[in-house]
Amino acid sequence: PAGWEVKDGCITAVKNGKGGDIITTGEYSDFDFLVDFKIEPGCNSGIKYFYTKYEVGGNLGMEYQIIDDQLGEDNKKDNHLCGSFYDVLPVNAGKKKVNSPGEWNTIRIVSKGKKVEHWINGVKILDFTRGDKTYTDAVALSKFNKSVPAFGMVEKGHILLQEHGGVISFKNIKIK
Questions:
Q1: I need a labelling partner for 113 at 20 to 30 A (CA). Which of 29, 128, 156, 162 fits?
Q2: What are the C-alpha distances in Å from 167 to residues 7, 10, 128, 170?
Q3: Which of 153, 141, 155, 161 is nearest to 47 (CA)?
Q4: Residues 6+ apart with CB under 8 A from 100
Q5: What average pLDDT does the segment 132-153 reach?
Q6: What pTM was computed for the model?
Q7: Mean pLDDT of all residues in the chain?
């Protein structure tokens, strides 16, 4: 759509292009998702998975947060930093090594049954089980605590590349 451009093997959200999000046509439950991304300084974006329309809450998805941890406008909470399960669970900060804005990084999201893993640049930085006590306690403290069905507990959903006003490029997108 307008607001996105395809060039040199990359798909890029144009700054303030208002292109909207890009959503897969298929829905996924068990998957291994791999993508390279590059952001401009201050950028905030994300990859949503299990994205679907909820009875209460509207269109929602679990989000692998992509943000410039230093200059992004939504960087005040640990569970809002790059690699986190946005607004729900933070990453293991001691393991996280993110390349600077302007450089490429590789994301991997693995979902098998109720288990989910977030990876960056070949290192697992977060793993959790949808529906266990740690998960449900964290969702209860998030902005998603009123959704029906319970947030993130749907059986399948789309994968979404988020356009959030900043420049972000994606390449080498693979879903297994």
A1: 162
A2: 14, 12, 30, 10
A3: 161
A4: none
A5: 98
A6: 0.96
A7: 96
